[in-house]
Amino acid sequence: MGTTQLESVPEPKYWHLRTVLSEALDSEFSVGEVLPNERDLAARFGVARATLRQALEQLELEGRLQRRRGVGTTVAPPRVGVAVGTERHAWPGTADDAWEPADCVPAAPPAAVAEVLGTGRDEPVHIVRRSRVSHGQPVAAELLYVPPSSVPDLTAIDAPSGAARARVVLRELQRGELERRESAVELGSVGAEDAKELDRLPGAPVLVVTTRYLAEGRTAALSVATYRADTCRLTFGDFGDVEIHHGPETRAS
Fold first, then answer.
1. Residue 152 to residue 148: CA distance in whole angstroms
2. Fewer CB in a 10 Å sphere around the end CB: N or C, the chain?
3. How far apart are CA 71 and CA 136, in angstroms?
4. Mean pLDDT, contiguous 10-residue spans, the chain (253 residues)
């Protein structure tokens, strides 16, 4: 490959480099291909490595690149469309729920979660961990916080720990009458625990969907779902629960 010098432009140099790199990804690289190392890329485009890293981070944020443990930076496949529906009367764990329960433990939630749930900061709640896999690839991880008051009959049930306990908590939660649910989406960075589950490096960009399930005028459960920003595109429709579609022709309206 020859050397491509960047012209002087009014926009930040890393942003112009991002555009040049994006064009190179389209014309010179295929999905899954490993990019040259930072030193070679910086030399090719005549920029400092700090500028190159900014451009690479931006392309990762946009889902064009992936950083993979033990592999390096690779060209990412097209994002899968994740339709976040607005159905107001569906508890988590219903028959068409795509999430797979993994574990359930009683523990005190983070202070911000306790405030939303209206529980004491040291009061334990049921913390259900769930995951989503699409085409063999992990795409999301979720923590569902359920206060004991939302599943009052659970103490009388001899449920084992782990995934079995999680399913029992979800089943008991569905006995209540859901009034509505409210969701919010924000950009974040993945922590160490979720990074391992999602096969990402700590600090990688993620989309965080927080959902409040309301019943009897209070928050009956709170979901914090972390989606891989490099593989997922969130869309909102008028019906249906969270559903993953594959291919650009199946984008939700």
1. 6
2. C
3. 19
4. 55 86 89 91 92 89 78 80 60 85 93 93 93 83 95 76 91 92 85 83 84 93 89 63 44 33
pLDDT of residue 90: 82
3-state secondary structure of 71: coil
Q: Are strands 232-236 and 80-84 parallel, antiparallel or unpaired?
A: parallel
Predicted local distance difference test score (pLDDT) of residue 198: 85
Enclosing H/E stretch for 24: helix 13-28
Choose among 226, 241, 215, 225: nearest CA to 147: 215
Under 8 Å between Cβ of 161 and 95: no
Structure tokens at 179: 């009034």
Residue of 139, 112, 111, 236 lying closest to 183 (CA atoms): 236
131 contacts 198 by C-beta, under 8 angstroms: no
pTM more than 0.85: no
Q: How far apart are CA 93 and CA 37, in angstroms?
A: 44
Q: CB neighbours of 247 closer than 8 A, spacing ≥ 6?
A: 78
Answer whether 4's CB lies under 8 Å from 39's CB: no
Length of the chain: 253
Nearest to 104, CA basis, from 183, 157, 180, 175: 157
Report the candidate in 115, 166, 144 with the shortest Cα–Cα distance to residue 221.
144
Alpha helices in 137-234 (DSSP H): 163-173, 192-198
Report the C-alpha gap between 82 and 205 in whole angstroms.
16
Burial environment of residue 31 by CB neighbours within 10 A (0 to 12, 13 to 18, 19 or more) = exposed
